[in-house]
Specification:
Length: 330
């Protein structure tokens, strides 16, 4: 069993990574159904929250069926981050996660996200103050370092643990790498193997198959996997990994009917949550993976991502069943 503070999780839990414009309540709910053990919100700007920006406050919505759920926040100003804790607590999440890893320029330029990797003392100070502000467990998501020459993740993790961080998720790239090259899990294993570490250490980056998840567990000895890009438009990934762990066998891929049904539910939930226009637009990024591998599918995908009314998109789904219903995935 793995524990984040008092939250009990199974051995080697699978966590849905916080992803901007992806891990909203509808998608988190689908991933939870398919076996995700912990889900995280999209990252939320502390400055946006304290200014009551609509886009930021909407991200605080969580559903009971998602639990345990973490709300992830980012920022570099101590006062703003502490005010954010007070706002976030009202949504009653199970975990508050701090993003010290986002590599995007507009975040980094403000000294937040991975930008804080240039100032480890500030990173520790912020974490310490936030732990003292709330009874909820504070966890951290970060990267190996700012660049290859400044990797001190073993020391950083130790210092975060010492000020009360309850778990750490580490993406196996530096900020300089962005998402290029291969994720390096060895430094994450060094954090886990540090005899001083006793909080869970979760690995993140390049977990694109059940085999890779197993490698992270068995070869690198990490406590769990935080999975991001492999789940976009494919919430079944969690179930497939767990089945592989149990049996050593791959689950058959979902059928056309199952894919259409999942896409249909996803779109309807998104519309119910954020309205027709936004629901349609923000679900589009998932369709490539929902229907990946179907030959001669371009025309249908194009219709899905250009149709502007819900009824029209649902009609495209119906036509996919009619046209490709018998297609067998290998």
């Amino acid at each position: 069993m793995v524990k984040i503070d008092n939250i009990e999780l199974p051995d080697f839990p699978l966590l849905l990574a916080p992803m901007e414009d992806v891990s909203d309540p509808p998608f988190r709910a689908l991933c939870k159904e398919q076996g995700a053990d912990v889900v995280y919100t999209e990252f939320i700007s502390s400055e946006g929250l304290i200014r009551d920006a609509a886009k930021s406050t909407m991200k605080l919505d969580i559903y009971e069926k998602e639990r345990p759920v973490g709300i992830q926040i980012f920022g570099a100003n101590l006062n703003s981050m502490l005010q954010t804790i007070d706002i976030v607590e009202k949504s009653n999440p199970d975990i508050i996660d701090i993003n010290f890893g986002c590599p995007v320029k507009k975040v980094v330029s403000k000294g937040a996200g991975a930008g804080i990797l240039k100032d480890i003392d500030l990173m520790v100070k912020l974490t310490d103050a936030m732990v003292k502000r709330t009874k909820l467990p504070i966890t951290v998501k970060t990267r190996l370092g700012w660049d290859h020459d400044s990797i001190k993740i073993v020391e950083v993790a130790e210092r975060l643990q010492d000020v009360g961080c309850k778990a750490i998720s580490i993406h196996g790239r530096t900020r300089a790498q962005m998402y290029k090259g291969d994720a390096d899990w060895k430094p994450i294993a060094e954090v886990k193997n540090n005899p001083r570490m006793h909080i869970p250490v979760f690995g993140n980056g390049d977990i694109s198959s059940p085999e890779k998840a197993m490698k992270m567990r068995d070869q690198y000895g990490l406590d769990g996997a935080m999975i991001g890009r492999a789940t976009i438009g494919y919430p079944w990934f969690f179930k497939e990994v767990k089945h592989y762990f149990k049996t050593g066998q791959h689950l058959p891929p979902p059928t056309i009917a199952e894919r259409v049904e999942m896409a249909r539910r996803h779109l309807q939930m998104a519309i119910d949550w954020k309205g027709e226009r936004l629901g349609i637009v923000e679900t589009r990024r998932h369709y490539t993976n929902y229907f990946k591998g179907i030959p001669h599918f371009k025309e249908y995908r194009l219709k899905m991502v250009t149709t502007d009314d819900a009824l029209g998109v649902f009609e495209v789904f119906d036509s996919v069943i009619e046209k490709f219903g018998d297609y067998q995935f290998s």
